[in-house]
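Sample entry (396 residues):
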Amino acid sequence: AIDHMQKGNHTLSIVTSEAESQESQQINSEAYKKIGRFLDEAVASFENAILLNPFDLEARGRFAQVYALKAERFKNEQDYRKAAHELENLLNLEKGKHDIYARLAENYFRMKAWQPAYEIFVEAERVLKETAFLNVEDPNATLQDLKQAAVDTSILFYYRYYQGVTQARLYHADRALEILASAKQLVRTPDDEKAVNSYLDWINWDGGNIRGAEIRDSLLVLQNDGKFAEATKGFTRLLKSLKTQNARDEIEWRAAVLQSQKLGKKDEAVSSLHQLIKRTETQANGFPVDTSYQRYFEDYSIMCYNLGLEYANKRNWQDAYAYFLQATRINWQGRAKSHVEIAKIVQNNPDLVIKHCTEAQAGENTLSLLEKQQLYQLLSVAYLKKGMTDEARQAR
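Predicted structure, serialized as tokens:
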């Protein structure tokens, strides 16, 4: 036995590690069960307390907290409903605390009951403003001072933000944008501003077509799960329901990338993106006017370049030339590489070789050492064929 343990030391440590992990999981499971039992006992105790004294506000408040805690820990929708029910009962007795309204709205939000969540967040804001005078601690404060008491803008932002979010979930784009714009005026931290801007961008992605944005998000989930064919079909269907050209362009790009990288339909992908590139307005330097489109241009160029390499390896020089040529027409980092590849294909035509090698020299810093050697060798030979010995000597 001792000999076995010495020889199997490493194995023994792994077994021990796995056993410890299982024991840890078991302890965690037991702890959650124990917490659940305690919460159930607390529910029973508060139920009895409320039966004895239905007007005990503190007991009702604690009772609702227990259900909210259960819902938070165990993600049980029925517990959210019970928490909401008790909070509603509590509000029948105590209507002057905005945080109770907020807790109730949060429970409805978790249940995706968007309309009641919105209405109760509105009530939370109303009560917050109406009870602002309670924050005035000056005993000599006048009635005017109380009327002008400052509202806690961090809490007001929270209520206003979720009013906007729930309106978006109800597909009321214009109202959601209006409310979120007002919430943006209340931001106090960079995270608050980021959250508002993110939702504004999401609503505006297709000009207020929130359903389209939701479908896009669900298709991105499919893509992340590796369901590429299903996601591509979904993107194609989604195109028909989109309102704006920007949204349609993004979806065409996403579908093309999947076709090229995951489904092996590379020629189709390039053809689809080619139409997108043609209709996109560009600056004098070749970059798109809308900078967000640069990723479409670069992906299109990469697809063209890679297809050119594939056809060149098959010695299909005509198609290789066509794809490399398309890649040179976009201002992207691999442009010089494409010119070098074209020069290889047309090396029997010294004029074309000189033309493309000269173009490649403009982006020489993007070439590898091997590509630079190929560039200057091609250029030197082309000059020699034209009898330009001095130029050929300089190119060596």
